[in-house]
Amino acid sequence: MNPMRWTAQKLGAQPWLPRFAPMIVGSDKALQRLTRGRLTIMLATGLDELVLQVPGRRSGVLRTTPLLTVPHEDAWYVVGSNWGGPKPPEWVANLRAAEDPTITFRGRTVAVDARELVGAERERIWPVLLETWPNYQ
Length: 137
Known about the structure:
- With 137 residues, the chain is of the alpha+beta class.
- It has a single domain (3-136), classed as Pnp Oxidase, Chain A (Roll), CATH 2.30.110.
- It has 5 helices and 5 strands.
- A hairpin with a 2-residue loop joins strand 2 (62-72) and strand 3 (75-77).
- The protein is globular, with a radius of gyration of 15 Å.
């Protein structure tokens, strides 16, 4: 395993990390803008990241959100964990309301059909997600 990934997983399990979420996300967005999506903080750790683009459900303003993703079986999976917080992140509600979401993955922007996994499908994919980020547990 990439030593940076191991370090990221250990840091990700710390209860104090969510306090730094705005700084981490802001830094990652800036890095992605500078490199046109080719470099991300996640890539340095050996983790995959996509940038979700959806309009705000109330404002209609385009929102871009970098997210840890697990590419698996011709799909990109993301988890609305909100850094372990009690409420889902705002991007989840925006994505649920979006008609035409897009993502940027490794510099390539594509339209996606997003849907929430439930039941047996969720149970089948959940272990795959935990392999990548055990802190979802």
